Amino acid sequence: MTPVLDTHGISLHYDTVGDGEPLLFLHGGLGAGDNWRFIFAEAPHGFRVIAPDQRGHGRSTNPSRVLTFRQIAADTFALLDHLAIDRVKAIGVSGGGIALLHMATMQPARLDAMVVVSAPPYFPPQARAIQSQYREEKLPEAERDALRRRHVHGDAQIQTLFENVRGFATDYDDVRFTPPLLGTITARTLIVFGDRDVLYPVGLAFDLHAAIPRSYLWVVPNGAHGPVFGVHAPRFAETALAFLRGEWG
After folding, report:
1. Under 8 Å CB-to-CB from 17, ≥6 apart: which residues?
2. The architecture CATH gives domain 4-124+176-244
3. Residues 6+ apart with CB under 8 A from 35
4. Residue 3 CB: number of other CB atoms within 10 A?
5. Which of 74, 123, 135, 198 maximizes the CB count within 10 A of its CB?
6. Tens of pLDDT along 56-112?
7. pTM of whole model > 0.85?
């Protein structure tokens, strides 16, 4: 059985793989903790990967059916407390990156370094338009099959997640990172954006870079949303690990 933590009204399932310095991985929306394997063939040398299934995703539950990135951040802090981890390095993709921004502004001292991928400071109109119409039937069949393999609680779980995404379209409170708030982040931060992201225009990456004090910006040429998988995975893995290990000047 995989480890599970009961916290904040949910059962949070998570995996830990490898040995060494703790490395938190937060997946994107409709994903699961083991998505890190699409980037790294195995646990990166010198790191212990901690990969939760966020509330309502994968094996984790969410009886309230309410999903916010601020709450995901609080769940993740509870997991780190449970594992007696005071300070961590992290990678967050899309919604996982938004949760990392919450963590880094809620408790700045607990994030040593983070790689934030395709995570905006706010949802622009083009993202809200897509979110408002987001439904399972719009996905290719292969992606729908993957959803069913990943989310073990069945169709009701999957439909709730799509409802959550549609709810983001009208929520103006949860994802609202102003420059002064971003300025409180103390973690070394690598911001990764694709220049062909249909959800978030690349200009948002420059806004993040301007506001986060110790930040670096990597714009992936011809990169779509979440440009860290598939053909981009090897270079991302090499670059992100070098950054997290402190090899950048």
Report:
1. 42, 43, 48, 49, 51
2. 3-Layer(aba) Sandwich (3.40)
3. 25, 27, 28, 51, 93
4. 13
5. 123
6. 999 999 999 999 999 999 999 999 999 999 999 999 999 999 999 999 999 999 999
7. yes
